[in-house]
Amino acid sequence: QEASHRFALPTSGSGGAVKQENFVLSTSGTDQVKGVMTLQGDALCQADVNLKMPRNNQLLHFAFREDKQWKLQQIQDARNHVNQAIYLLMNRDVNYQFKTGLEVLKLMDAVMLQLSRARNRLTTPATLTLPEIASSGLTKMFTPALPPDILVNFYINLNKLCLTVYQLHVLQPSTTKNFKPAGGSVLHNPGATFEFGSQRYEVSHVHKVECVVPWLNDALVFFTVSLQLCQQLKDKISVFSSYWNYRPY
After folding, report:
1. One Pfam family name from the record (predicted)?
2. Position 238 confidence tier, pLDDT thresholds 50, 70, 90
3. Which long-range contacts (CB under 8 A, 24 or more apart) does 30-39 make?
4. Cα–Cα 20 to 30 A to 180, which of 18, 64, 109, 137?
């Protein structure tokens, strides 16, 4: 229940509306990329990104269009899994009596599966190829439009909201003799190559900035505690079930 409440975040007196939270994304030791993100539940509703181009120190600024929001599927999925775990526990009559230890073990297994999936959605970002990032709807969210040599990606990693900016350069036909496109990855390194449209590119610079989202940290802690409680109950059931004359009451 505590983990589930972290994903709702209603503000008092707002009729259940989810509050907006502002986060500054940066990294120590460099000011190549800075971002200010507004997170509302599972949606990025505003984003302002400043990018300093290394070639000429030109400063570029991009922001979400006012009519656009970007859903963070990881948060949405984690919330759905924890709510499913709660449903599994609550969808019985209040006076229901479990008849066997095995019945309890099966329920705990089902609940733990949902809790593990919820946690894994936050701890394991999706691996994407560079063409998948390039064709993502995220690239069309910004005004002014992103130049063709810039790619961006948002994702959740544990308790952090992460922004990765890729700067590209076009590969000339003479340099693509042994062209080998990069596969899927959470974070692509400089030197990774890919083909998009009719053009081949190489990643020249990668910038990753991030910030801690406190309520995601809370949710991860509650997932861990919940899984431990489920396992403790399973262990107790297993101990009692080892006695041949065990009967649940």
Report:
1. Rogdi_lz
2. confident
3. 30/207, 32/205, 32/207, 33/163, 33/165, 33/207, 33/209, 34/209, 35/163, 35/209, 37/154, 37/161, 37/163, 37/211, 39/72, 39/161, 39/213
4. 137
Tokens of 43: 């949606």
CA distances from 48 to 9, 51, 141, 208 (A): 23, 10, 11, 15
**Can you give the pLDDT at residue 11?**
46
CA-CA distance, 3 to 15, in Å (whole number)?
Answer: 21
Q: How many helices (H) and strands (E) does the chain have?
A: 5, 10
- Per-residue pLDDT tens for 137-164? 888 889 898 888 899 999 999 999 999 9
Per-domain boundaries in the chain: 1-10+20-237
Q: Whole-angstrom Cα distance, residue 217 to residue 212?
A: 8
Rg (CA), the chain: 23
What number is the average pLDDT over the span 31-48? 87
